[in-house]
Design brief:
Mean pLDDT: 83
Order of helices and strands: EEHHEHEHEEEEEEEEEEEEH
Strand order of the largest sheet: 6-8-10-12-15-16
Distance between the termini: 36 Å
CATH class of the largest domain: Mainly Beta
Number of helices: 5
Largest sheet: 6 strands, mixed
Strand content: 35-45%
Shape: elongated
Oligomer: single chain
CATH topology of the largest domain: Pectate Lyase C-like
């Protein structure tokens, strides 16, 4: 399937740009596929949806609202050139704006494009990074969760959950000084870190033959 939808990190949430030249069925199908791949990254986020010059019926917009609701996405700003299109969007419960006008400046998550984060993630905290790879200088403690659209390199201990390649990138890796996670996930593949983690040496998790394997740094470089 061709890519009809572009999903990018943006200040305040996620920006979704839909090709306004393809059929709505193709656009909705591609959006559904990408939402499935990045469900954990997008859940609860503010979505800025750029429809361009596309014209939709109320039923089409309602189908979009129902699909997003299924992913626990309630906050949606629709950007469209057409006044009629914006009125239809408002009728189904979306906020609608002309293209080029930004939504709220208040970020919904503590995420920046910077590739380095210096902090410890405590129990109950979830940090989502939408801008590719992330280097964390700190620990992911038990009960905390780190979700990254690219690879995650952690200079610290991992006792919680780490999800790399959250938008479906199976080439992403997870690297940590001490990897004893509750769960690790790369794209749509899940695994637990080895329970016997007595060697305390940097480890890397990656996908091979459709499953996650964990290797020491020395093994990974061979």
């Amino acid at each position: 399937m061709a890519d009809y939808v572009a999903i990018k990190g943006a200040r305040g949430g996620i920006r979704v740009v839909i090709d306004d030249a393809c059929t709505w069925a193709d656009a909705l199908g591609d959006l559904h596929k990408q939402m499935q791949q990045g469900a954990s990254l997008m859940q609860g986020m503010r979505i800025s949806l750029d429809l361009g010059a596309r014209q939709l019926e109320s039923a089409d917009m309602d189908a979009l609202r129902s699909m997003l609701h299924g992913y626990n996405i309630e906050t949606v700003d629709v950007h469209a050139e057409s006044t009629d299109m914006r009125q239809i969007a408002r009728a189904v419960g979306f906020t609608a704006r002309p293209r080029g006008i930004n939504a709220s400046k208040e970020p919904m998550i503590a995420d920046t494009p910077r590739p380095i984060l210096i902090r410890n993630l405590r129990s109950g905290q979830v940090y989502k990074h939408l801008h590719g790879d992330l280097t964390l200088l700190g620990d992911v403690n038990a009960g905390a969760e780190l979700i990254v659209s690219g690879s995650a390199v952690i200079f610290g201990r991992v006792r919680g959950i780490v999800h790399a390649g959250a938008m479906g990138d199976r080439s992403a890796i997870i690297c940590a000084i001490e990897l004893a996670a509750t769960q690790i996930r790369i794209a749509d593949v899940r695994a637990r870190a080895p329970e016997d983690d007595t060697h305390r040496t940097p480890e890397i998790a990656c996908i091979e033959d459709g499953q996650i394997i964990v290797q020491t740094w020395e093994e990974y470089r061979r």
